[in-house]
Amino acid sequence: MSVDRPTIRLVHTSDVHIGDDHNAVHRLKGLTAVVDAAVQHSADALLIVGDLFDSSRVNGPDVEGALAQLARVDIPVLVTSGNHDVLDQTSIYHRVALSDAGAHVYFLDDPAGAHLVIEELGLSLWARAMVDHHPGHKPLESYEPARNGHWQVVMAHGHYVPGSETTYRSSPILEDEIAGLACDYLALGHWHRYLDVSVNGIPAYYPGSPSEPGDSFASVNLVVLDPATGVTVERVALPLD
Question: pLDDT, tens digit, for every residue of 196-224?
């Protein structure tokens, strides 16, 4: 661990589902609560790990509402695609530019996987954008850490598979894959509940959806990367109507 790296605070969410036909207003309130949490906890960056939007059909007012929330912060906002907002030919991202919310919003859209480096935070973020949600899509495939001495954070949207199980589910994230990652934090999305799937010293967490209670309550993860004490993850409750 490099002692030259700064201490940074990340708010990690996923599965926001803006534009959900069944409860669009409630979904936007979930994103509002996420941004409020980032402000309240003095986050240095906000991670949205897939399914910011519920589909390619999200209407204009809901899109504008989401962009208005992302514009409320002046910290880096890192977004990647999930199974509801995949980067296929009909993707919502062909008509919505997240950068319209501000130059601080970044979309990690490389289907082969790529790093985004934020020098001022000493942070390298990697994601492999989802183009098609199917069993052959491996969200962690091709990951290699950036050799720059920065904090290494991986964003992956998919289905966690314990080592004792076999699966035919789409976008699998295997326990053995997590165990071999050379990263400081694995930010997961896809499961609508908080879950710690850390293994072999690799902190790996789902935050749950910000507008659903999961097993108990809606939440985000507050992740502190400290060169002296390591990585800590706190589950922060969000209000639900």
Answer: 999 999 999 999 999 999 889 999 999 99
